[in-house]
Protein: OB-fold domain-containing protein
Organism: Streptomyces muensis
Amino acid sequence: MFETRLKVYEGQRAAVSRVGKDPVNAPMIRHWCEAMGDTNPAYSGPDAIAPPTMLQAWTMSGLSGHTRGTHAYDELLGLLDDAGYTSVVATDCEQEYLRPLRPGDEITYDSVIESVSAKKTTKLGTGYFVTTRMDIRVGPDLAGTHRFRILKYAPLRRADRPAAGPARRDQSQKPSRPRPVINRDNAEFWEGVQRHRLLIQRCTGCGTLRHPWLPGCNACGGLDWDTVEASGEGTVYSYVVMHHPPFPAFDPPYAVGLIELAEGVRMIGNVLGVPYDKVRIGLPVRLEFREYDEELVLPIWCAQEGAAQEGAAQEGLYEHR
Ligand SMILES: [Zn+2]
């Protein structure tokens, strides 16, 4: 039967004796620490070690040199594709650190298909969890292991989804925008959006505001929270203009902003009310709610009137952290 055929792949190689593209090196460590905001002194200076959580970074082949899996791994995924489990989502990753990595270390790695689960039904659809374990070495020494799990699944058709209801299209048959993923942790946020209220989560232990919504406070670990309603004032903290690829339901080019709210938290949303090429860092924006179809309300950010004429907030352009 099908599951027996899948089980055959447990223990087979997914990658053999690969070599890291670059030795462990100080520039990559520095960029990582800057991006993560990690100022731990162990990661700089003459005796620096690499942050242990960079483990996978040293194995990555980059955009140019993507290497395929082994025959066994491709065959397993192909088998699942052919059986209708065509979608894939990474679900979790687990690392173990056995030896610090230092600039100059050259790594090699092997990967093995550790397990293929029994058939599981999830909110995304029914499928199989495939777990691979990568062993990363420096010479003969095991430096760490990186266990990575994906779900290969057959996506539910929209009409089968419990919450979404039938797909609705406007008269031009334009595809509808993707729905937000609503779960127990963020349900109250999306209920607020439906009522045209933007709610920010607040830790009742230490008062820290947070967004996106999370079950716990990153500042104090507290699990209790309430909400404050956003005033709706914000500025563009960063942005991208999407040209390509074109997604159904979207008309490129359009600007997607990382908006810093007056309350201090940041969130992502479309920047409207100004041509896409007039969006600038520091641009003042104001919250509005847009009803995209009968079901979908989203917060969007409108350039405040006249903002485009204010030299696109020139003074604000470069004064950001
Ligand atoms: Zn807190």
